[in-house]
Amino acid sequence: MSGSLVAMATDSSGSSVVVTVRLAAGKDVSVIAALIRELAVFEKLEHACEVTDSKLESSLWNLPPFQGPTVLMLEVGGSRSEEDQHEQEEKDLNLQQQSFEEVVRELKLSSPIADPDAASFRSTADERRIVAGFVLFFPNYSTFLAKGGFYVEDLYVRKPYRGRGLGTILLKTVVQQAVRLGAGRVEWCVLDWNVDAIKFYQGLGASLLPEWRICRLTGKALESCSL
């Protein structure tokens, strides 16, 4: 895949790609760092982004998935041959007693996806797939509900893949896992100028809470506030 991602033909009226959401592992660290830097540029916050591979390696995988920071990779490509489907069914059986089952969906496209940076975002799990985005979240707790939940720190879909339903699959995967684990809520923040994201979240049924404001201590302010 030199410069574009060629969709797999399904019928005369359109084409489709296979979308996979999987747990990230240590070998994904460089791609995750690249995605975070892209997100920082998109949010006009690149001046505040200090991410490095080594910082991620030392902090992301200290706890089991869903007990600490957890990353899911959103990948596009590959195929769903009978052999692939059989392998997936075996994986699903083996994972039933584990913490997470990969999500695999076939997504119909209205037009092919052109990704000029595909070579830089090849999946470490399957070289036929390209990383289209990621979500990073971690557990929190609601005293009012007396239940745990998830806070989504970052949800990012790369530009060539936006507007195709991939963000919905990614966020719903987090929600599905929260429901499976008996969580009370999933929450996140959105920048007030990101109108498209706000409409997207509202379309999923999320409530925006304008009466709340984020309070943050970081850097020198964090150090000077400590006892």
TrEMBL record:
Q: What is this protein called?
A: N-acetyltransferase domain-containing protein
Oxidoreductase found in the keyword field: no
Q: Does the keyword Glycosyltransferase apply?
A: no
Q: Which organism is it from?
A: Sphagnum jensenii
CDD domains in the cross-refs: NAT_SF
Q: Keyword annotations for this protein?
A: Acyltransferase, Transferase
* InterPro entries membership: Acyl_CoA_acyltransferase, Diverse_Substrate_AcTransf, GNAT_dom
N-acetyltransferase domain span: 83-227
